[in-house]
C-alpha cells in the first residue's frame, strides 16, 4: 500500500497543497520555514491520528482559519482517508464515511518517522519505546488491539475505584478483565520482540557495527505474575490512586554490546540506532502484514557524517517502504535511486522535473 495523493487545506503555512506521490521515493526540498516538515506531519497524521510535534491537533490549523483538512488516497488496497481538524474536535472519514477511528487510520496507512528527535527513542522515557513497540505489535499481532482495549478499560475503572477510596472488593472486581487483557498484551509483545530481534540486529550492524539486544520488562517484577503484583501493591496503588503494575508500565531496554545504549552512545550513534530500530520494524511489518509502510525522514543529514548519512539513506531506500525525505535542496542527498522531487515555497508545493 502506498500514498498516491495527498491534499491539504489550511494546514500550518500551506493554505492549499496537493502532491501526487512517487510509489518509492519522494524528496521534498525548500528553504527553512517553507513547510517541508508540515507535509511530513500531515502524512503522519493520516496514519496515526496525531501529530509528532503539536500536543493538540488543533495546532496545525493555519492561523486565522477555522479548520484544517488532510486528505489522502491510498492504493493497494484502495482507501480514501480524510481528517478534518477543527478547534472543536477532529473528524475522521474513511472512504467518505464519517465516524472513523485512529486504529482504522493506522490499519490503512502504516507510517513511521525518522526525524532529528529519533534519538529520543533510545534516550527518552519508557513511554517512547512502548509506543514504538506497540505500533509494530498492532500491525502484526491481530488480537493485540482487543487485548489492549480490554486492559485499558479495566485499568481506567480500577484507577477510578482506587481514587474514590472504594472497598477492596470493588477494586478487585476489575482485576479479572485487567489480567485477561494484560496477558494478551504481554504475550503479543514478547512474541513480537523475539521475531524482530534478528532483523533489528541486521540494521543495527549495518549502521553501527555493534550487537543490539532488546530486554523487555513487562511492567511488574519479574518472576511473579501480575495478579500477585496487584495483590502485593494494593496499598501503594491506593496511596497513588493509580495502578502501578501492568503492561502500561513496561520497559524496553536497549543493549548495545551488552551495555544499556542510552548511557553509552554518541548523539549521532543514538540517531543511527533509533533509525535502525524503526527501519527494522518497518521491514518486519511489511514482511508479515504484506503492507507497504510509509517512512517519513525529516532532515536526515543533521548530525551524521557523509559515510553514515549514505548508509542511512541506503537503508531507507532499500527498505521497500514508500519514503518521503526532506532536504534543503534535492540534489544535496546521496541517493542512487529514482525519485520524485518536490519544491515548497510560499505555501505552494510544485513538482520538480
Ligand atoms: N498554525 C500555523 N499557521 C500558520 N503558519 C504556521 C502554523 N504553524 C506553523 N506555521 C509556520 O509554518 C512554517 C513551516 O514550518 P515547517 O516546520 O513545516 O518548515 P520547514 O520547511 O520544515 O523548515 P525547516 O527547514 O526550518 O525545518 C513556519 O514558518 C511556521 O512558523
Ligand atoms: Mg523542518
Question: Could you describe the 3D structure shown?
Answer:
The mean pLDDT is 95. It contains eleven helices and 14 strands. Helix 7 (175-208) packs across helix 10 and helix 10 packs parallel to helix 11. The chain has a domain at 1-110 and 294-353: P-loop containing nucleotide triphosphate hydrolases (Rossmann fold). The protein is 42% helix and 24% strand. The chain starts with a strand and ends with a strand. It is of the alpha/beta class. The chain has a six-stranded mixed sheet with strand order 7-11-12-3-13-14, sandwiched between helices. Strands 2-1-4-5-6 form a five-stranded antiparallel sheet, covered by helices on one side. Bound molecules: adenosine-5'-triphosphate and magnesium ion (MG). Residues 36-37, 298 line the site of magnesium ion. Adenosine-5'-triphosphate (ATP) binds at residues 12-13, 30, 32-38, 61-63.
Itemize the secondary structure elements and their pairings.
Blueprint: E1 2-11, E2 14-20, E3 25-29, H1 36-48, E4 67-75, E5 79-86, E6 89-94, H2 102-108, E7 111-114, H3 120-123, H4 126-140, H5 144-163, H6 168-172, H7 175-208, E8 212-217, H8 226-232, H9 234-240, E9 251-256, E10 259-260, H10 267-289, E11 294-297, H11 306-317, E12 322-327, E13 340-345, E14 348-352
Parallel strand pairs: 3-12, 3-13, 7-11, 11-12
Antiparallel strand pairs: 1-2, 1-4, 4-5, 5-6, 8-9, 9-10, 13-14
This protein binds adenosine-5'-triphosphate and magnesium ion.
Amino acid at each position: 500500500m502506498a500514498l498516491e495523493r495527498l491534499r491539504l487545506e489550511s494546514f500550518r503555512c500551506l493554505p492549499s497543497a496537493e502532491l501526487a506521490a512517487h510509489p518509492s521515493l519522494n524528496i521534498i526540498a525548500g528553504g527553512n520555514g517553507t513547510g517541508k516538515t508540515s507535509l511530513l506531519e500531515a502524512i503522519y497524521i493520516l496514519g496515526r491520528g496525531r501529530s509528532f510535534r503539536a500536543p493538540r491537533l488543533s495546532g496545525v490549523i493555519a492561523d486565522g482559519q477555522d479548520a484544517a483538512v488532510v486528505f489522502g488516497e491510498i492504493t493497494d488496497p484502495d482507501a480514501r482517508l480524510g481528517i478534518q481538524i477543527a478547534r472543536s474536535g477532529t473528524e475522521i472519514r474513511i472512504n467518505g464515511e464519517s465516524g472513523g477511528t485512529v486504529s482504522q487510520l493506522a490499519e490503512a496507512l502504516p507510517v513511521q518517522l525518522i526525524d532529528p528527535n529519533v534519538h529520543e527513542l533510545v534516550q527518552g522515557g519508557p513511554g517512547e519505546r512502548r509506543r514504538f513497540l506497540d505500533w509494530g505489535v498492532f500491525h502484526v499481532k491481530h488480537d493485540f488491539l482487543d487485548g489492549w482495549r480490554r486492559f485499558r478499560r479495566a485499568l481506567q475503572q480500577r484507577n477510578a475505584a482506587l481514587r474514590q477510596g472504594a472497598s477492596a472488593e470493588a477494586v478487585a472486581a476489575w482485576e479479572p478483565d485487567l489480567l485477561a487483557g494484560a496477558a494478551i498484551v504481554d504475550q503479543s509483545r514478547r512474541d513480537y520482540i523475539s521475531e524482530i530481534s534478528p532483523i533489528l540486529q541486521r540494521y543495527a550492524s549495518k549502521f553501527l557495527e555493534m550487537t543490539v539486544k532488546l530486554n523487555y520488562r513487562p511492567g511488574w517484577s519479574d518472576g511473579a505474575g501480575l495478579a500477585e503484583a496487584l495483590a502485593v501493591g494494593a496499598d501503594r496503588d491506593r496511596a497513588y490512586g493509580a495502578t502501578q503494575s501492568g503492561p502500561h508500565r513496561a520497559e524496553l531496554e536497549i543493549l548495545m554490546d551488552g551495555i544499556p545504549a542510552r548511557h553509552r552512545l554518541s548523539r549521532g550513534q543514538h540517531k543511527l540506532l533509533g533509525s535502525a530500530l524503526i527501519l527494522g520494524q518497518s521491514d518486519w511489518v511489511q514482511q508479515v502484514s504484506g503492507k507497504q509502510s510509509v517512512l517519513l525522514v525529516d532532515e536526515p543529514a543533521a548530525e551524521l557524517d557523509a559515510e553514515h548519512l549514505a548508509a542511512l539513506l541506503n537503508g531507507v531506500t532499500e527498505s521497500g517502504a514508500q519514503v518521503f525525505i526532506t532536504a534543503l535542496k534535492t540534489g544535496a542527498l546521496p541517493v542512487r535511486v529514482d525519485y520524485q522531487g518536490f519544491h515548497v515555497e510560499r505555501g505552494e508545493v510544485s513538482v520538480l522535473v
